[in-house]
Design a protein that fits this description.
Blueprint (H helix, E strand, L loop, with lengths): L22 H17 L3 H13 L8 H24 L1 H20 L4 H29 L3 H32 L4 H4 L1 H15 L14 H24 L4 H21 L10 H4 L1 H31 L4 H7 L1 H18 L6 H18 L8 H28 L7 H38 L6 H34 L11 H9 L1
Length: about 500
């Protein structure tokens, strides 16, 4: 089979391998792993009140159920990506799956809050190995431009909708079983994925072999990311001017500056800087970061809006996200995947971000008495369609033409942008929302009797102010994509033989 531009019926270009006939089944395995990692960032959100009551967590400590995962995941992604390049993507993929399953089982069996926090941190550690391995396996498996578009369409749909699926699944498991199953559910998924990986996935040539891991780079880069992600996590309960928050940001920035300086001198750099110097990749990384800032903040608000303001049950609230998920899948697999070979990536990314911005602007009109069908649903559909149009070309363009030895760390950089964006979005927009809500209540509360109406109105006012900021961030993402991502459609870019050589190594 050909993996060049002529498709399966054309001749195999000289010096390349035939496409794996089981590659689409391999995509199912990769997709399962990616779905597990992404939905786990949100699946415990709806279960958190139940877990807090069962394990007697304080309000101040409950955030660590979320933070322990995001901190380890976001901070260690670069290291996980480089390990995948050095020892082989399939091997780290399997190790990540097994470790993630064991950590999930440990968390589900937790008898104390400390045990649950530790298990969530372990999940984040193994997710940091698993996520870049999954994306780099996808990158090196699908090299034909037409097939690559379909494969990345599916992957982009999962990356965009996995968080919403987490809310749906979390609601179902919490209401009909109990909160522990939000963790146990990962075990059967991981077992199926491990068996599929052994049977269907193969490493391509090009991992590092005798290259050594950049230990100083790992300490500097991972330490800087951990400090920044931790700073954003602590900004939510403490406030942006808290000394600890400011110190974390300062330490994180200093470590990352020193990290960049060291990467120019390291014999085997953790993050080869030519990856981020490329204009298209840098544009994709920044677009992903900005897009996720807006989307994750919305997830937080809508979860509380549906359950607290509109009085939805956990299951009904989870199902409220289903149209968003469907729209992301349609935008990614039915629109972006079909058009990426015909139009430049930014011709999908810019309209996608504008559609998402329009969806957020519709949500700024919501009130305490808004109708889900007529006011919330259209906004979620627009947002989902826009994110679906954006995620797929971001993943495909950021990883296109990367040498196999760098595919893991490139994949990790995309995932890092997504994870850090989620941390920033949650902390930044939640702080804006709570501050605006407090100001509204202070200004409008005339007597204790008014509290029952003023407080809910103030909460919703805080959400709408934060959503205005999220819309502005989406608009900025559209500008970044339009100005920085100048890649051409695959059919009109690199000649077929050269493209195959770049993809296969």
């Amino acid at each position: 089979m050909s993996i060049g531009r002529t498709g399966e019926r054309g001749p195999v270009p000289a010096g390349t391998e035939a496409a794996d006939p089981r590659r689409w089944w391999g995509l199912v395995v990769i997709a399962l792993a990616q779905l597990m990692v992404v939905l786990d960032a949100t699946i415990v959100n709806i279960a958190l009140p139940s877990a807090q009551a069962a394990l007697h967590m304080s309000d101040g400590n409950r955030q660590w159920v979320i933070t322990a995962y995001t901190l380890a995941f976001g901070g260690l992604l670069l290291l996980g990506g480089r390990i995948a390049d050095l020892v082989g993507r399939k091997r780290t993929f399997v190790i990540g799956l097994i470790g993630f399953a064991l950590a999930s089982a440990l968390g589900g069996a937790a008898g104390s809050s400390g045990m649950l926090f530790g298990a969530r941190a372990l999940q984040g550690v193994f997710a940091a190995v698993l996520a870049p391995s999954a994306l780099s396996l996808l990158t090196t498996t699908f090299t034909d431009p037409r097939e690559r578009g379909k494969a990345f369409g599916i992957y982009g749909a999962l990356a965009g909708s996995g968080s919403a699926i987490g809310f749906i699944l979390g609601g179902l498991l919490t209401e009909y079983l109990n909160w522990r199953w939000c963790l146990y559910v990962n075990v059967p998924i991981a077992i199926i994925a491990v068996l599929g990986a052994f049977a269907l996935l193969h490493d391509r040539p090009g991992h590092g072999g005798t290259a050594r891991l950049d230990a100083p780079g790992a300490v500097l880069g991972c330490g800087g990311l951990v400090a920044i992600v931790y700073g954003f996590s602590e900004a939510e309960p403490r406030g942006w001017t808290d000394p600890l928050v400011l110190a974390l940001f300062a330490v994180g920035i200093v470590l990352l500056v020193v990290f960049v300086w060291w990467q120019n001198r390291a014999p085997d750099p953790l993050l080869p800087l030519h990856i981020v110097r490329d204009r298209n990749r840098a544009g994709c990384f920044l677009t992903m970061l900005l897009a996720v800032i807006g989307m994750f903040g919305l997830f937080l608000f809508m979860t509380y809006y549906l359950q607290v303001i509109l009085g939805y049950s956990p299951v009904r609230a989870g199902l409220g996200f289903l149209p968003l998920t469907a729209a992301i899948i349609i935008g990614s697999t039915q629109i972006s995947a079909r058009l990426l070979n015909r139009v430049a990536p930014r011709m999908l990314m810019v309209p996608g971000m504008l559609l998402a911005c329009a969806g957020l602007l519709l949500l700024t009109r919501m009130t305490v008495h808004s109708s889900y069908t007529s006011e919330i649903l259209p906004a979620l559909l627009l947002l989902g369609l826009g994110m679906g149009l954006t995620f797929m070309p971001v993943f495909a363009t950021a990883t296109a033409g990367v040498a196999p030895r760098d595919s893991g760390v490139t994949s990790a950089t995309v995932n890092t942008a997504q994870q850090v964006g989620g941390s920033i979005g949650t902390a930044l927009l939640n702080t804006i929302a709570t501050t605006s809500a407090a100001a509204y209540v202070t200004a409008h509360l005339r007597s204790p009797a008014d509290r029952a109406t003023v407080v809910p109105a103030g909460v919703v006012h805080g959400y709408t102010v934060a959503i205005w900021w999220a819309a502005a961030v989406m608009l900025l993402a559209a500008v970044v994509a339009g100005l920085m991502v100048t890649a051409k459609p695959p059919r009109h870019g690199v000649p077929a033989k050269a493209q195959v050589r770049e993809s296969v190594g």
